[in-house]
Amino acid sequence: MIVDLLIEFRNLIIQGFLTTVKLSLIGIALSTIWGFIIGFFRNSRSEWLRIFGYYYVELFRNIPLIVQIFFIYFSFNIVDVFPVLKVVAKVLHVEDPNAFFSALIALVLYTSAYISEVVRSGLNAIPYSQIEAAMSLGFTRLQTIMYVIIPELFLVIIPALTNQYLNLIKNSSLAMTIGVAELTFVTQQIDAETFRGFEAATIVTILYIFLTLTTSLIMSLVNRWVSKNGRRVFA
């Protein structure tokens, strides 16, 4: 029975679930920030920033995520390159910091490339006349971005942004290939010990559905709130 398996391996499943949540939440936050930056680079007046943004997107979007994970993990010890990650690993209670942060960085680089395209499309959907009107009223470029562009941008891109967040949650399962003990890794571990792979996969599938549906619900509420209050909050 699935319930028996869930009770017997509850600690292992909880650990895998928490690892997936950590990868997903941190990955979503970092890829959103970096994706927005790259998206603005793509629409920048600076030719060098546009070129950088273009090649960044083409590079990381067209290399399979699993290849990026392997490259980062096997090329160097990420914790030695960024010693501060050792402190972060202790705070997050990460057992294998090198594997965890290698997978996380790969997820951020890959997902941010797609998010930047979402941002770029959203920026292109904003009428330039609104930007001209803001500039004519004496707004600086930073004020125009904060009070005109960003509120309009969020009204446009939240549905597409939600899709990228869901993809990141699902793509986090690839971290198992370098030994990160997330949900998919837990499935294989339980299967190896009990030969009850179907039941283990069913439990993990339910947990993934819970994560993705929760994310969709939160983003739907955010979308509804932004639609009603976004302009007023930023104004």
Automatic annotation (TrEMBL):
A GO CC annotation recorded here is: ATP-binding cassette (ABC) transporter complex
Principal location listed in the UniProt entry = membrane
Could you tell me which CDD domains the record lists for this protein? Answer: TM_PBP2
Q: What topology does the record note for this protein and the membrane?
A: Multi-pass membrane protein
Which superkingdom, per the lineage? Answer: Bacteria
Keywords (alphabetical) are: Amino-acid transport, Cell membrane, Membrane, Transmembrane, Transmembrane helix, Transport
Q: Which GO molecular function entries does the Swiss-Prot or TrEMBL record give? A: transmembrane transporter activity
Entry-linked Gene3D superfamilies: MetI-like
Q: Domain named ABC transmembrane type-1: which ranges?
A: 17-219
Q: Which family does it belong to?
A: Belongs to the binding-protein-dependent transport system permease family. HisMQ subfamily.
Protein name as it appears in the record: Amino acid ABC transporter permease
What organism does the UniProt record list as the source?
Answer: Desulfurobacterium indicum
